[in-house]
Amino acid sequence: MFKRILPTASAILSGLIVLGGLLFPGYAPLHAARLLVLQWAMIIVAFAFILGFLNLLRVHAYRVGRRHKGWFTSLLVIISAVGAAALVFVEGPTGPWSRRLLDALLIPGEGALLALTAVTLTLAAIRMLRVRRGVGGLLFAVVLLILLLGNFPYLPHLGTAAAWLREVPAMAGMRGLVLGVAIGIALTALRIILGLSQPHSD
Amino acid sequence: MIRCPKCGTVNPDGSRFCSNCGFKLPQTRIRCPVCGAYNPVSNIYCEKCHARLNPEAESAEETGVEDLISLPTRTNGDVPDWLRGLLAEEELSPEAIEEEPPVAPAEGLPDWLADLAPEEPAAEEEEAPAAPAGEGVPDWLADLAPEEPAAEEEAPAAPAGEGVPDWLADLAPEEPAAEEEEEAPAAPAGEGVPDWLADLAPEEPAAEEEEAPAAPVGEGVPDWLADLAPEEPAAEEEAPAAPAEEGVPDWLADLAPEEPAAEEEAPAAAPLEAAAPEEPAVELGVEEEEEEEDEEDLITPLPSTRAPDEEIPDWLKNLGERTEDATATTEALSQGAVPEWLRRIKPPGTGPLPPLEDVLGEVAEAEGGPARAEIPDWVRKLRPSEEQAASTPPPFAPSAMVDTGPLQGLSGIIPPAPALDAPPSYAPETPPEIPQTLREAAQLWQTILERPRGRRRPVARRRRQRSPWGDALIRLATSLLLIGVILAAIFDLVPGDLVGEARPAPQIGIAPSVEMIGNLQPDDLVIVAFEYGAAQKEEMDELSSALFAHLMERQVQIVAVSTSAQGAGIAESTLEQARRRYPDFADKVSNFGYLPGDATSTARFLATPQVQEAKLLIVFAADADHLRWWVEQNSTTAHPLPLIAAINGATAPLVRPYLESNKVQGWASGLIGAAGYWQARGLPLDEGLARRLTALRVAQWATAALILIGSAYYLFAGRKEAE
């Protein structure tokens, strides 16, 4: 009852309310009910974040307590999480120390890691033909070179080819992906509304 | 279960009185093989002499019992077909069913047979009990045997064994308990008749007290048989029973145990006791009083019946060769009492049977029996064919005496017969079809195994170990080259002729973006969503700087929001920079903060009335999902807002279709998009942005050169190494 039927009934009812509010936007009660359900969802998600934060502390505290492998890293995670949370609790999310923590630590660190991926991708592209000598590998290398050299001023034709690659083949592929994602989302939503899928009960 | 001898009610084991009529029920006891005392069935040792009542378990090898072969369990339903068909009519007569007394169980029966045997009614005190008949007889035969009425107040004049072979005494119908020390009744006629014939006989009425009733010849025989039988006077006191053993056919003689039973006070039954002196005998329905330990087993005296020897068939004549009494009994039985159809019927093993139709036809003609056409088909189907009767061995062949095992000393035990458990029609299962792939694999293995050992076989070559320094060197050189080129471009060390003019490629969505922002009026509300993290901040800051400069110039109200935790902080940093750059309009920017719930929070935020009054929605996104949420939820509102997507270069190809489908009206992506926005507004590029563009361009060329060189090397020169 409380594990299967009630969650499924709640999911179906919520889905129907939100869907009805979208289909009949002029009907004020249904629109208000939709907004209410969305507001509840935001509160529940926020509470889920709190639970996730506490669970993160519990898992890493267990690793530290049992001296599992990487326990020191877990200890750093606990210290960082608790310190950041305490800092935000004290001065709010837009406080000076909170923004300094973001600007001086997170942004340079993550930016450096992203820059490393550029070097890694370059090395992977260089070695690609060492491990993959098929037509696909060769085609990938050629397309990559055209796009990289498209802005080279001494090779104007490569710029035209690069523009065509971006506008036609890449666009066709991405439209197919977007359509597939949209169909998948619609199908998943329909299954949940009809009660065929119950991800909330797993 | 104990069957009440009075009313026939089945009572649970251990009951002393019938649950229906209150009659005292007989009890089951184990008689000690040493002292003869009766013990409860749960005893292992005798209560009187402490002798072991049941032998110890023996291994399967010692007992000779084969594994996976079960003992045959025969019930009444296992009567041979040829006999069942003939007995059907007689057994089903209402009189026979109503008057059928409980069948006496057999002493010394194996357990599996004893369990199937019904209980014997209790005898009175000091009463000479009726000897259990059918000792050593299979249960299905014992069940078929009719029971004799009780002889009252007379001790059996003729012990069972006297004049009667032991095996027939076992087969003989049992009488209920007689009154103490009374005269034995005269032996009824029909004694010496094989059991399968005796089963046809109806039950005799009980004898009166102090009177030896003369059993008529026809008792125990169907009426139509009784009419044919001559009248036989009742036997006088102690009339010797006719030894029926000599009138037994060979197939029945095989059933007989070798050693006759005997008792102390019953000389004729003594061999029965001597047959298994060390074997405890499970006696069913012996006595209910334990103090009657000196009680003796008395074989029911078989009523003597003499029949003339005339018209006896050959196989019945052979029965009379053992003793004179048996001959007399056989003669009495065969004197006009045996119809012609009975003479022709022989049990299995004595020779091929005549066709049943012929026999029944003759019977119908001679005695007015059932006409030939009246025989139902199912009876005909039960009749065995001649070939089957001639070729099929008897379904059981009782052993003379069991030498080992728990049944040691008992005779007439049906040995395990595997054929009995075999299904009537057995067809071996066809092997499953082997897939073709398995056949080919098996043939390949066979070919490989049969290959001569001298031939060279393919062996996987070991890959040459590559030096770890080689990869590290390539990685280091590539990194240093890229970093050097970027630094050179940033510090303006690259010749301008080589790089060319910093002119970004035109983007189709930039001009609409500039137009939409340019059309904003002062104090118009603009929603700006920051949906990127710290890693993309350097790239996205160029876009936000270009657009925010335009927005601040338009003096619009800006509300920042984010559905990611980092985005909320980044939004605050961006707004702080805008406030510093444009201090006069600092009060027109605000940060709504974090919206938990991804698409749900986006929908909720866009559905609020204040947001619906906004004039423009700008989304700075570094991943496709966040932009998709805003695009989809904005399109579902009652009044969708004009939307400008400012995205990083890596995400642009993924969300480009939204621009093509006009879900996104404005567009700017990456550093090139930021530069294009400045140029679209007719403003010169920021110096920092120009250097970044130069560095980006040089880095792209360097990367292309490295990939080209590496690909060419591994495509041609490095082929050998790669292999």
Q: What kind of assembly state do the chains in view correspond to? A: heterodimer
| Mean of all residue-level pLDDT scores of chain B | 67
What is the share of helical residues of chain B?
25-40%
Strand order in space, largest sheet of chain B: 8-7-6-9-10-11
The biggest beta sheet of chain B reads: 6 strands, parallel
Report the average pLDDT across residues of chain A.
88
Largest sheet of chain A: none
Radius of gyration of chain A: 26 Å
Distinct helical segment count of chain B = 30
- The computed structural class of chain A is mainly alpha
**Strand and helix order of chain A:** HHHHHHH
Number of helical runs of chain A? 7
Structure, explained:
- The complex is a heterodimer of chains A (202) and B (723).
- Chain A is mainly α.
- Among the domains of chain A are: 1-91; 93-129.
- Chain A is built from seven helices and no strands.
- The two termini of chain A are 14 Å apart.
- Chain B is built from 30 helices and eleven strands.
- The longest helix of chain B is centred in the C-terminal third of the chain and has 31 residues, at 687-717.
- Residues 57-75, 88-108, 117-138, 144-164, 172-193, 201-222, 228-248 and 256-310 of chain B have low confidence and may be disordered.
Keywords:
heterodimer, A: 202 residues, mainly alpha, B: 723 residues, alpha/beta, Rossmann fold, six-stranded parallel sheet, three-stranded antiparallel sheet, 37% helix
Task: Summarize it.
The complex is a heterodimer of chains A (202) and B (723). With 202 residues, chain A is an all-alpha fold.
Topology (elements, then pairings):
The complex is a heterodimer of chains A (202) and B (723).
Chain A: H1 5-23, H2 28-66, H3 71-91, H4 96-131, H5 135-148, H6 156-167, H7 169-194
Chain B: E1 2-3, E2 10-11, E3 29-31, E4 38-40, H1 60-63, H2 81-91, H3 94-98, H4 111-114, H5 139-144, H6 166-171, H7 195-198, H8 223-228, H9 250-253, H10 270-275, E5 281-283, H11 314-317, H12 324-334, H13 340-344, H14 356-367, H15 377-382, H16 386-391, H17 418-421, H18 436-450, H19 468-490, H20 496-499, H21 510-518, E6 525-531, H22 537-553, E7 557-562, H23 565-581, E8 589-594, H24 599-607, H25 609-612, E9 616-621, H26 624-635, E10 643-647, H27 652-660, E11 666-669, H28 670-680, H29 687-717, H30 719-722
Parallel strand pairs in B: 6-7, 6-9, 7-8, 9-10, 10-11
Antiparallel strand pairs in B: 1-2, 3-4, 3-5
